[in-house]
Amino acid sequence: MKRLYFTALALAAIATANGVAAAPGEELLKQQCIACHAVTKPDQQNLGRLWERKGPDLHYAGDKFNREWLLAWLQNPTVIRASGVMYSKLVKPGADKGPDQIDPAQLQAHPKLSAEQAALAADALLALKVPGLVEKGSFKNETANVAFASMLFSKLRGCTSCHAAKPGGAAQSGPELYSGGARLQPDYVAAYLRNPHKFDPHVWMPALGLNEGDVQKLTGYIATLKQTETK
Amino acid sequence: MRRQLTSTWLACLCTLFAGGAVAAEQHAAAELNYNTYCVQCHGVNRDGNGINSKQMSVKPRDHTDSKAMGDTPDETLFKAIKEGGLSVSKSVLMPKWSGVLDDGQIKEMVAYLRFVSKTSSK
Prior knowledge:
The complex is a heterodimer of chains A (about 230) and B (about 120). Chain A is mostly helical. Chain A has two domains: about 1-75 and about 110-135, Cupredoxins -  blue copper proteins (Immunoglobulin-like), CATH 2.60.40.420; about 80-105 and about 135-230, Sandwich (Immunoglobulin-like), CATH 2.60.40.420. Chain A has helices at about 1-20, 25-30, 45-50, 60-65, 65-75, 85-90, 115-125, 145-155, 180-185, 185-195, 210-225. In chain A, α2 (about 25-30) packs across α7, α5 packs antiparallel against α7 (about 115-125) and α8 packs across α11 (about 210-225). Chain A is globular. The termini of chain A are far apart. Chain B is an all-alpha fold. Chain B is about 55% helix and about 0% strand. Chain B contains five helices and no strands. In chain B, α2 (about 30-40) packs across α5 (about 105-115) and α4 (about 75-85) packs across α5. Chain B has a single domain, classed as Cytochrome Bc1 Complex, Chain D, domain 2 (Orthogonal Bundle). The longest helix of chain B is centred in the first third of the chain and has 25 residues, at about 1-25. Classes of the chains: A mainly alpha (about 230), B mainly alpha (about 120). The interface of A and B includes residues 47, 51, 162 and 203 of A.
């Protein structure tokens, strides 16, 4: 009898917990996203996990993405990481001492969501925030010299070594940035530039030790990049 | 006599193979770090032909180049990894890795580079 009572209590507790978490968007994340993406902060963020995970972490998605972009991308996903989620797992030596290569056939396509599902997922993702990770308003949006910022991006700070600034180029080890302005919140870009390892402790993006002026200029420049993949 | 010689040869061979295995084990941690952080520019074959090298105005260092690597002191390699290319008057495109590698790991990486380039400490 006592046992029955406890079972009933336990069931009630589960029902309550589910009741709280049963918002359709959160349910969608559980069903469709968590097999590949972390939607809560992972217990372990070691090098092994960096190699094993199947998709980028999303537990700070609300600090990172622009809603309009997310909504469109979830319905019509394009390749953001031309070298896959972990480039080193897919990279192969090039022929005749040429640069290493990625076989695009190895890239896994992201599932497409319906307009209704995309709206639910976007709202649920944008609710995922980590307090203290991104300082709101830290990007000042002061008019910068675009030509100089472009030089910083390509030559002086070497961003284009790893990130594609134009659609259609060869695969590189970092996510493309030609859609960075559409995709990413500027405050996130600034925070990530200051210290990428605050977000992803072992990621292969180096902490460049940029001064705040360069952080602002690069963020302002990336905010202007709004191209989409050529098909 | 002949038998004795054969067994001496065998013993030598065994030592060589065991030595290789020990070297591989000794460098396992540095190799994983190399594969995570360095391969993107320095390449799967460690020869400077990384996937990003195509977009770079300065070609990444070929770590299999015994001559150039042999001429570079440990201290310079350590500093380049820890503080970036500019700190040793090389390219800005070599970033500093102190954000993900501590001093001990960088020392291991220098030892691994000696192993890859078949050079010894300088």
